[in-house]
Every structure is written in structure tokens, then in C-alpha cells.
């Protein structure tokens, strides 16, 4: 009895000596050839690697473009974001006292920040820096005059006018705070801070 070497490197005894035919692997070869043609395994390796290279390059270019856009957007929005944050700190400080023209020092700093916020609004008007500017300008317009105590003592009928100014200060201050928080959330969402 003779033996042949199969693809599994096993020695299998033959039942006859002539002709040696391996009948166990024949159907597998036909099935494997049939599936190779239907699955596209017949593509050349060069074409496969070329397609893979094109896909990787396209993904890389897309990521570079997206990150550059985000970086430019971040550079554009950061000054306005910082100015809004500083304005929020000043508004929180001003919430504890009356805003009086010429007496309250933080009003000068707030006016400077309004200028920075106006520039930020010109750069990116869709973000909402303009809302902050209008609310803070409304707050600055409702400040009490420097000599309000003297005027109030001379004419007690002005009390209602000054109360209305103080009430409007509170309303505009809170509206400006809400606008700042809203804009900062938008900027954080766009820049992923």
C-alpha cells in the first residue's frame, strides 16, 4: 500500500496503487474557484492597494480641511469669546451696586469691552455678539446721573424716574448676562473648547 502527501501534510493510505487519485479535495477546489470568481478575489493586488491608498488619502485630506476650518474659526471667535467672558465678570461685579455715570469705575471698562464685542460682531455676525452689544448698551444708557442724590433731594417727584432707571438697569444687566452665556455656549460648541 502506498501513501500520498495531502495539503494538511498527513499521510493517507491509498486503496489502490494505480492511478493515484485524490478524490477528497476535488469538490473543495471547485467550490473555492467558484467563490473566488463571485467575490472579486480575482482583482489584481496593485489595483486593491491603489484603491486603498486613494481612500486613505481622501480621508486624510478631509480631516485636514475640517481641522483647518475649525482652527480658523477658533482664531476668529476667541477674541470675542474672551471679551464676553470679561464683560460677564464686570456685569457680575456691577450687579451688586448702582451704575452711576462718572462714579462707577467699571462702566469705563465695560464701554471698552463693548467696542471689542462690536468688532467680534462684525467678524462673525451669526454668532450673536450683536445681542450682547445691544443689551450692554441698554444697560449703559440706563445709568443714573452723577448728581442723582442732589436732584432727588431737590425734587422728590424724580423718585419714580430713578426707580425706573434702576429697574431697567437690573433688567438689562440680566439680559446681557443671558446673552453672554448663550453666545459663549455657541462659540464653545463651534470651537470644541
User: Mean pLDDT, nearest integer?
Assistant: 80
Strand order of the largest sheet: 1-2
Poorly predicted tracts of residues: 29-36
SS-based structural class?
Answer: mainly alpha
Give the tally of β-strands: 2
Shape: rod-shaped
In total, how many domains does the architecture comprise? 2
- Strand fraction equals under 5%
Computed CA radius of gyration, to the nearest angstrom: 39 Å
Q: How does the major sheet shape up?
A: 2 strands, antiparallel
Number of alpha- plus pi-helical segments: 6
First-residue to last-residue Cα separation: 79 Å
**SSE order:** EEHHHHHH
What percent of the residues sit in helical stretches (DSSP H or I)?
A: 55-70%
Please give a quick description of this structure.
By secondary structure, the protein is mainly alpha-helical. Helix content is 70%, strand content 3%. The protein has a two-stranded antiparallel sheet with strand order 1-2.
